[in-house]
Design brief:
Strands 1, 2, 3, 4, 5, 6, 7 and 8 form an 8-stranded mixed β-sheet that branches. The chain has 1041 residues and is an alpha/beta fold. Helix 32 packs antiparallel against helix 33 and helix 36 packs parallel to helix 38. The chain contains 44 helices and 15 strands. Among the domains are: 314 residues, 3-Layer(aba) Sandwich (Cytosolic phospholipase A2 catalytic domain); 164 residues, Rossmann fold; 65 residues.
Length: 1041
C-alpha cells in the first residue's frame, strides 16, 4: 500500500490546445492554495500524458516546473515549431511531417537547459522522486502503446529506462501523424510515433500504471483524487490535408478521446460516486481550432476561461482542489482516532473564519515539514474546545495521530500523555510504557519521555497534538503556584502540528494566535436550536433572549438545555434571567446537571476560575472588574476615572486601590492588560477603550457579596458624577453621550436605598459625595434631554442635602437653582419662579447680594421673566446682574458677557434693534478678547452670539453681514458637535434662506437664541445655562441643551 492516498493526473493530447490543459491546471492549483499556488509535482503522485499532454507531463513532473513557467515555455515552443512548414513528400517520394522535427527537438532541449539540466539528461529520475512521470508513445513496429517512464516500472523496459533522454521522450510522444517525423530511440533503434495513435486520452494508461506500481490492496480505496484533463471536444468534420487517410485517422483519435473518458467513468463509477474522479474538458470554443494553429492562443484561453467560470465547473473544480489539498496519512505511525473523555457536541455549528485560520496554519503540507503551532484564545465558554474538536474530526485522516491532552492542570496533562502510550503501535515505544496505567504512577515519567520521543522521531512528522484548556499563567508562579510551562511538553522536533486552547492571550507568543470571538446571529440561532430540540418560534421574546445571550456559545447551550428540560417559555426564561440570574447560570442550583459538552459545565464555574486567578495575582484588577459591573459594559476608558482622582484624592472614603489605578494611565493599562490576558475584556475598535461581554458583565455583578456590590455601586456614581463635563469644554456633547449609558447603569431602575449603599457613619463625606453626584447626574440627564430622569436626580439630591447640610447651605441652593432651570425647561414657569426666588433669598442671606452665585440666579430670573412676557422686570434683573458681574468679575468676564448677550436679546424683543446690536457686538468682542480668536470659535455662548447677531442682521435686510455671522456660527458648531448635527443643519437652512425672504424659520431662530440660565458649581457641579421653554424644545432637538 502507498503511505498516503494517491493523487493521479492524466493529460490528453491535442496540439496547441494543450494550452487549455495548462489553463485548467492553473485554476486548479489556485484553488489548492490561492496565496501561493503549488507545483503540480508537489501534489500529484503520478502524471501521465500523451502527445501534447506528454510534453506537459515532462515539464510539470520531471522538470518540476510551475504551471506559469510551463505555460510560458509551451507558448514559446508552439510558436516555434508550428511556424515553419515543410513539403509533405520529399523528392524521393517519402511522406514526411508538415513541421520541422529538428526545431521541436531544439525547443525541448532549450527548456531542459533552462531548468538547470544538461540537454541530454535521461528521463530516468532519482528513486526517491515523489512524482512519477511517464509519457505514451506508439511503437512503429508493433503498434502497441509504450509507456516511457522516469522510474523503474514492473512492466517497463529496462533498456529504455536506462537510455531514453528527456528530449527523446518528448519527441516520441509528440511524433503526431502528419505533423512530425517518427523517432528511433534505445539500444536497438526502436521507432516511435505519436502516442495519441494508441492512447490520446491516457486515463487507462495512468490507472494501469498505478496498479502496477502500487499493487497491494484495492487501488480504488487508495486513490484520493484522479484528475483527467482534455483539450476540448472535437468537431465531427474530417481534418483537412488528408494524405493517405491521415485526416480520417486524426478524426478517429479525437472522437475516441471523449469516448474513453465516458467509458472510464462507467468502469470506475465508484470513484465518481465518492467524488474521487474529476474530468475537465472544454465543451465549446475549441472544436474549430486546429492542432497546429498556434496563433489562436487568445481564443483558446478565452474559451477555457468561459468553461471554468461556469457554475457547475466552478463547483467541480472547488471540490477537486479541496480533495487535492486534503491528504490522508497511511504510514507506519498511524494511531486510531479517538476522543475518549473529550466533551462533544451532537451537532457543531460551523465557524468558517476561525476554522479557515486553523486549517491554513496547521494542516500538513508537502512543502514544509516545520512544526506548526496555533493558539486559540478567548473568553471561557466562547467555544474554543468545540472548534478544536471539529477541526480534529474533519481532518483526522490527514494526521498520523490526533492526541488530545487535558491541560487544566499539570497532573491531568501528564496523565493524558502517559495514556497515549497504550495507543501507539507495538514496537515503536518500549512495551512497559505501552502498558502504563493511571494507577501505576511510578513509571509515568518514563512513559511521558517515551511518548515525546516517539513524537520527535524524524519520520513521524504528521501528527496533531491538542493541549486543551491551558488556562493557568506560568509567567506568574508567585500567585499561581499550580501553573506549569506547557512548552516542556511540546515535542522538541521541528515537525508536527500543535493546537493550544487557552483564555491566556500571552500564550499566543508560542505560535500563531487566533482569537475566538462571539458567534453571529445566524450561528447563535443554530446553537440554540441544537440544544432546544423543540419547535422554535421566531418571536419578539426569542429574539430578545438571543440578544441577551449575545453570541456566547456556552450561555446559548445552557439556556436551551434548561428550557428543553423544564419546558420553560422564552418569556419565563427572560424573567428568570433578570430576577434570578445567579441561580439560573449555575451559582447555586445543584439540581441542574452541568453541560457535558463543556469542560466546566456552566457560565458561573468557568469565569469564577478566571476571576480567582486574577484575584490571586492582582487585587486591583479584580476590584476594577467588580467596579466595572456597576458601569456600562461597552465603554471603559482611563480618562473616565481621572476627574474623580483629581478632585477627591484627599477623601478617605475612596478606596486606595482606586487611587492607584486612576492616578496613572500606565498602571490602568497594565491592570486592564491582565483582564485582557484572561479574555474577560476586549479592546474597542476605533476607541482607546475597553468592553466586556454583557454576560460576563452580569456575572461580575451577581458574584459580588451585597456589601462589596454596594461599595462599588456608590463609587461608580461618584466617578460618573465627577466626569460630567462643563458645557464650555471642547467636545462636551460627545463625552456626555459616552457617559449616559454609565449613568443609567450606576443609578439603576430606582433610587431606593441609594444613601444606604455605603457606610455613612464611618465616612461622613460619603453622603455629601453621593448627593453631589446625583446633582451632577441631574445636569447630565438635563443636558441630554432626559428631563424626567433629571428631576428625579435633583429631587433626591435636594432631599439629601437638606437633611445632611441644611436647607440654606449653598450646595443645597445650587440644586434648588437647577431645579428652577429644569422646571422652566418643562414649561412649569410658576414652579421655576418659586425655586429661583428661594435660591435668590438663600444666596443673598448666605453670600451677599453681590456674590456671583447670587448674580447667576438674578440672571436666571431675568430669563424667566422674559419667558413670562414681563420685559420690564427682566430688564431690571439683567441690569442688576450686569452691574454686579462688572464689579465682581470685570467687564470682560464670560459670565458678564453672557448677561450682555441676554440684554441684546431683550432689546431685540423690545424692538430696540440698535441697542440689541451694540450688546451682541460687545459680547462678541469680549469673548474674543477673553478667550482668543481660536477658542472663541468653539465656545458655545460665543457661537450663540454669532447666531443671534446674524439673525438680527437678517431681519434688517443686511444679508451680507448675516451670512458672515451664520457662517462663523456654522464653522464653530461643526467643530463642537460635528458636521451632521442638527444645529449645523439648521444653520445651513438659515444660510439658504438668505436667498429668499425672512420667514417663520428666522422668527423661530431669534426666539430660540436667548442665552440659557446659569447654574453655579460646587465640588464637581457643572455650570448650566438653560433656556426658555419654547426655545428649549428646539435646542433639545439640536443637542445644544
Amino acid at each position: 500500500m502507498p503511505e498516503h492516498e494517491l493523487r493521479l493526473l492524466a493529460l490528453d493530447g491535442g496540439g496547441v490546445r494543450g494550452l487549455s490543459t495548462l489553463q485548467i491546471l492553473k485554476q486548479l492549483m489556485d484553488v489548492v492554495d490561492p496565496e501561493s499556488p503549488p507545483k503540480p509535482c508537489d501534489y500529484f503522485d503520478m502524471i501521465g500524458g500523451t502527445s501534447t499532454g506528454g510534453l506537459i507531463a515532462i515539464m510539470l513532473g520531471r522538470l518540476q516546473m510551475t504551471v506559469d513557467d510551463c505555460i510560458n515555455a509551451y507558448v514559446s515552443l508552439s510558436d516555434r515549431v508550428f511556424q515553419k512548414r515543410r513539403h509533405r513528400v520529399t523528392i524521393k517520394g517519402n511522406v514526411q511531417g508538415q513541421f520541422d522535427s529538428a526545431e521541436l527537438e531544439r525547443a525541448i532541449k532549450e527548456i531542459i537547459v533552462s531548468q538547470g539540466l544538461e540537454e541530454d539528461t535521461l528521463l530516468k529520475d532519482s528513486p526517491d522522486a515523489k512524482c512519477k512521470v511517464f509519457v505514451c508513445a506508439t511503437s512503429k513496429e508493433t503498434g502497441d502503446t509504450v509507456r516511457l517512464t522516469c522510474y523503474r516500472s514492473p512492466r517497463g523496459r529496462e533498456q529504455l529506462l536506462r537510455t531514453t533522454k528527456i528530449w527523446e521522450a518528448g519527441r516520441a510522444t509528440s511524433a503526431a501523424s502528419s505533423f512530425f517525423d517518427p523517432i528511433t530511440i534505445g539500444d536497438f533503434g526502436e521507432g516511435f510515433v505519436d502516442g495519441a495513435t494508441g492512447a490520446n486520452n491516457p486515463v487507462y494508461e495512468v490507472w494501469n500504471e498505478a496498479q502496477d506500481l502500487w499493487p497491494s490492496g484495492s487501488l480504488e480505496e487508495s486513490v484520493k483524487c484522479f484528475v483527467s484533463i482534455g483539450t476540448g471536444i472535437p468537431s465531427l468534420t474530417p481534418f483537412t490535408d488528408d494524405l493517405a487517410g491521415v485526416g480520417k485517422s486524426l478524426l478517429a483519435i479525437a472522437t475516441e478521446t471523449e469516448k474513453t473518458a465516458e467509458r472510464f467513468c462507467r468502469d470506475k463509477s465508484g470513484l465518481d460516486d465518492k467524488g474521487r474522479y474529476y474530468r475537465f474538458n472544454v465543451l465549446r470554443g475549441l472544436e474549430d481550432i486546429g492542432l497546429e494553429e498556434s496563433k489562436r492562443k487568445n481564443a483558446i484561453i478565452a474559451a477555457t476561461n468561459r468553461y471554468v467560470a461556469s457554475q457547475a465547473v466552478f463547483k467541480q473544480m472547488k471540490a477537486c482542489g479541496n480533495s487535492l489539498a486534503d491528504k490522508q496519512y497511511f504510514g507506519l505511525y498511524r494511531v486510531p482516532f479517538s476522543l475518549d473523555g473529550v466533551p462533544l457536541v451532537n451537532e457543531f455549528v460551523d465557524r468558517a473564519s476561525e476554522m479557515e485560520g486553523i486549517e491554513k496554519h496547521l494542516l500538513p503540507t508537502r512543502r514544509k515539514r516545520r512544526r506548526k503551532v496555533v493558539v486559540l484564545h478567548g473568553l471561557g465558554g466562547i467555544g474554543k474546545t468545540q472548534l478544536s474538536i471539529e477541526f480534529a474530526r474533519r481532518h483526522q485522516l490527514r494526521f498520523s495521530a490526533v492526541i488530545w491532552l487535558d491541560g487544566r492542570s499539570e497532573d491531568r496533562l501528564r496523565q493524558s500523555i502517559a495514556t497515549v502510550a497504550s495507543r501507539i503501535p507495538k514496537s515503536q515505544i518500549p512495551e512497559s510504557s505501552r502498558r502504563h496505567s493511571p494507577q501505576n504512577t511510578t513509571d509515568i515519567d518514563t512513559a511521558i519521555k517515551d511518548v515525546l520521543a516517539w513524537l520527535s522521531a524524524p519520520e513521524n512528522n504528521t501528527w496533531l497534538v491538542v493541549f486543551d484548556n491551558v488556562d493557568k499563567d506560568y509567567q506568574d508562579l508567585q500567585h499561581t503556584p499550580d501553573a506549569y510551562d506547557v512548552k516542556r511538553y511540546i515535542p522538541s522536533a521541528d515537525h508536527g502540528s500543535v493546537l493550544i486552547t487557552t483564555r491566556l492571550v500571552n500564550l499566543g507568543q508560542l505560535g500563531t494566535p487566533i482569537q475566538v470571538s462571539r458567534v453571529d446571529g445566524e450561528q447563535a440561532l443554530a446553537i440554540f436550536k441544537n440544544g432546544y430540540r423543540r419547535d422554535f418560534e421566531d418571536s419578539a421574546e426569542s429574539n430578545r433572549l438571543l440578544g441577551l445571550l449575545d453570541g456566547l456559545p456556552l450561555a446559548l447551550a445552557q439556556a436551551s438545555a434548561f428550557m428543553r428540560e423544564t419546558a420553560t417559555s422564552f418569556a419565563e426564561y427572560i424573567e428568570f434571567y433578570k430576577a434570578q440570574w445567579g441561580e439560573l447560570m449555575g451559582s447555586h442550583d445543584s439540581s441542574q446537571a452541568p453541560l457535558q459538552e463543556y469542560q466546566n459545565g456552566s457560565i458561573w464555574t468557568t469565569w469564577t476560575i478566571s476571576y480567582q486567578a486574577i484575584q490571586q495575582r492582582d487585587k486591583m484588577a479584580a476590584n476594577l472588574l467588580l467596579l466595572w459591573a456597576c458601569l456600562d459594559n461597552k465603554d471603559l476608558w482611563f480618562e473616565l476615572l481621572v476627574p474623580a482622582y483629581r478632585r477627591l484624592r484627599t477623601e478617605e472614603c475612596i478606596p486606595e486601590w482606586f487611587w492607584a489605578v486612576a492616578s496613572s494611565k500606565l498602571t490602568f493599562t497594565r491592570t486592564v492588560k491582565l483582564l485582557l490576558g484572561y479574555s474577560l475584556v476586549e479592546g474597542t475598535e476605533g476607541l482607546s477603550s475597553y468592553a466586556t461581554h454583557p454576560i460576563v458583565h452580569e456575572w461580575a455583578w451577581q458574584m459580588q457579596e451585597e456589601d462589596a456590590r454596594a461599595k462599588h455601586r456608590w463609587l461608580s456614581r461618584v466617578i460618573i458624577g465627577m466626569a460630567v463635563p462643563h458645557r464650555s469644554e471642547r467636545d462636551f456633547s460627545v463625552t456626555q453621550r459616552r457617559l449616559l449609558p454609565h449613568a443609567d447603569r450606576c443609578v439603576g431602575p430606582s433610587l431606593g436605598g441609594i444613601t444606604n449603599s455605603y457606610d455613612m457613619q464611618r465616612h461622613s463625606n460619603a453622603a455629601i459625595l453621593t448627593f453631589d453626584a446625583l446633582h451632577s447626574l441631574g445636569n447630565l440627564y438635563a443636558d441630554q434631554g432626559k428631563l424626567g430622569e433629571a428631576e428625579k436626580m435633583y429631587q433626591r439630591a435636594l432631599q439629601g442635602k437638606e437633611k445632611a447640610l441644611s436647607a440654606e447651605h449653598t450646595s443645597t441652593l445650587q440644586t434648588v437653582n437647577n431645579l428652577g432651570i429644569l422646571y422652566r425647561d418643562q414649561g412649569k414657569l410658576g414652579e421655576a419662579e418659586k425655586m429661583y426666588q428661594r435660591a435668590l433669598q438663600g444666596y443673598e442671606k448666605a453670600l451677599g447680594a453681590e456674590h456671583t452665585s447670587t448674580l447667576e440666579t438674578v440672571n436666571n430670573l431675568g430669563i424667566l421673566y422674559m419667558d413670562q412676557g414681563k420685559l420690564g422686570e427682566a430688564e431690571k434683573m439683567y441690569q442688576r446682574a450686569l452691574q454686579g458681574y462688572e464689579k465682581a468679575l470685570g467687564a470682560e468676564h464670560t459670565s458678564t458677557l453672557q448677561t450682555v448677550n441676554n440684554l441684546g436679546i431683550l432689546y431685540r424683543d423690545q424692538g430696540k434693534l440698535g441697542e440689541a446690536e451694540k450688546m451682541y457686538q460687545r459680547a462678541l468682542q469680549g469673548y474674543e478678547k477673553a478667550l482668543g480668536p481660536e477658542s472663541v470659535m468653539t465656545y458655545v455662548p460665543a457661537l450663540n452670539s454669532f447666531w443671534g447677531l446674524g439673525a438680527l442682521f437678517h431681519v434688517v435686510g443686511n444679508f451680507a453681514e448675516a451670512r458672515g455671522m451664520y457662517s462663523k456660527a456654522l464653522v464653530g458648531y461643526e467643530k463642537v458637535v460635528g458636521h451632521d448635527h442638527q444645529s449645523c443643519q439648521h444653520l445651513r437652512e438659515m444660510l439658504s434662506s438668505l436667498d429668499g425672504t425672512a420667514n417663520s424659520l428666522l422668527i423661530d431662530t431669534m426666539e430660540d437664541l436667548r442665552h440659557k440660565p446659569e447654574g453655579q458649581s460646587s465640588h464637581f457641579i457643572t455650570e448650566k445655562t438653560p433656556s426658555k421653554s419654547k426655545r428649549h424644545k428646539l435646542l433639545r432637538k439640536l443637542g445644544l441643551r
